[in-house]
Amino acid sequence: MPVPLSIRTADLIIWEFALNSLQNFPFTMSVSFMILGIIFFQPTWSLISLGVLMVFFLNTILQSILGKFAPMLGDDFVAALSVPIEAGVNTCYPYSGTARPFTFPSEWMTETAFILCFIIYNSWILMKKKGNTSLFEAYQRRMSRTQISLLASGVLLAAFMAIRYQMGCDTGVSIFISTAFGAGLAVGYWHILDVCNTQLNSDVLGITRNMAPMTADPEQTIVCTA
Amino acid sequence: MADFARFAVGEMAQRGQRIGVIQMLEENAKFIYEEARGQARYGFRTLPDLLLSGSLFLTFVLGWQPALASFAAGIITTGLTQGLLSDMIKRQRPVFEKAGGVLGGGADKCSGHFPGTAWSRPWLVMGHADELVGGSVPSYYMTVMGYIFGFVSTQEYMFKDELSMRPQTSSWLRVFTITTGILVAALGIIRFVTDCEPWWSVILSILLGIILAFIFVSLIVAVLGRRQINVLHLPLLEKRIPDSKPIYVCADKNQ
Predict the structure, then answer these.
(1) B175 and B218, same domain (yes or no)
(2) CA distance to partner chain B, nearest, from residue A117 (Å)
(3) One domain for residues B201 and B167
(4) Residues B181 and B70 in one domain
(5) Residue among B38, B53, B166 whose CB faces A97 most closely
(6) CB of A102 within 8 A of CB of A70?
(7) How many angstroms away from the CA of B52 is the closest CA of chain A?
């Protein structure tokens, strides 16, 4: 039985939105982290967005340095690392029309790995923490949130690696090295934000911030005893 | 003579290196400038869809955030309502037609959608797949921006009891609400200046977005409870436990 045109069109709408969302992932996430972090009072989200910006600068510098030296090692070596992107509209970097002659380490993959590995590392740290099991419901809720986050981010990262390879946007070697590079930067950045070891500025899930007493708040909530 | 030649060659090499480094820095600066300009333009054009996509991703990668899910659902509801309304208005007043019906944001730089078919016009796309015009008033872009401002504004009203106990959070929330208002107004002005829509359409769309936000938030609170829109993660005060007795009872000072 043929599928009605209206259903096929509805499919197309959802599919196109999903495809655009996936292709724009690092850009979408950094913009969303910045804006939603500001309007919803989540400083960690805005700090991650700044982190992505730093990764972008670092990546650009690395690309230009390696782009100078890599050709000395031969064309095969360059071909194993980089997929040149021409100027104009393209599916690999839909949010950018700038030409990229040398794309190792991959900007897209490094930024994506940075964002997702930051979340994964944060969830893993929170999951390892011993909770107050007497408050079993709250403890379980925290555990399930960290587990969902860990799983969702991990699956998404693996899917992105496969999609980028399948689309021919990055080479296999570049994908793995860029992901490792992004992951390393994410862990480092998480520890920089956690410099006071309080996890107030590094906890992207907002769990620690919600549990912490509001020391800056001069007015404490008074609860009468039963 | 040999020393002089060695010195000259060394000097030239050093100068060459310096020029190479300067050239590389120049290339990098140029790339970053072009990239920042291109990304800022793309971000501005597709901001409503970027925020929808971002909040959906964040809902899942942050381990299911109900408030963000509600926020995203609100953008979808707002977009669909706007799509329906603008097409109804277009049918009554063909003067409000604009190109891009089925193709949506593909070629229209002012649509606020990602390139491709516009998800906010399924009625038009499903019913009249060959139609290449859509309604322009109210606009998707500013209606969603109005919704965002409305959503943030409702927080103060919905959590007034909790916020009355947290004056600092309350004052921060007021700052963020005003900031959001300024951002939305600035976007409206940019859209008017760049000929994306007339000033009255900007105001009308923002008002529609705010009204839709209030209706949507009220519905969510009535059906699912306040926890679903608690984006600030405020600890909620529960006035009564299920057996209708107060949770907290003050100790008798005489005892």
Answers:
(1) yes
(2) 11
(3) yes
(4) yes
(5) B38
(6) yes
(7) 9
Domain membership flag for residue B197: yes
**Per the domain annotation, does B12 fall within a domain?**
yes
| Domain ranges, residue B215 | 47-93+135-229
Same domain assignment for residues B177 and B89: yes
Q: What is the mean pLDDT of each run of 10 residues along chain A (226 residues)?
A: 59 82 93 92 91 94 88 86 84 84 91 96 86 62 84 95 93 95 96 79 76 52 46
CA distance B57 to chain A (A): 8
Residues A73-89: b if buried by 16+ CB within 10 A, e if exposed: eeeeebeebbbebeeee
Q: Which of A173, A120, A59, A150 is nearest to B31 (CA)?
A: A59
- The complex's ipTM? 0.86
3-state percent helix, strand, coil for chain B, nearest multiple of 5: 70, 5, 30
Cβ distance of A60 and B119 shorter than 8 Å? no
Q: How far A217 CA lies from chain B's nearest CA (Å)? A: 6
For residue A18, how many other CB atoms are within 10 A of its CB? 13
Q: Who among B51, B57, B63 is closest to A145 (CB)?
A: B63
**Considering the domain boundaries, does residue B128 fall inside one?**
no
- List the single best residue of B27, B37, B45, B50 to mutate versus A (max A Cβ within 10 A): B50
Residue owning tokens 């059906």:
B223
Which of A9, A29, A209 lies closest to B54 in CB terms?
A29
For B62, the closest of A6, A35, A149 (CB atoms) is A149
How many structural domains are present in chain B? 2
In a domain, B98, yes or no: no
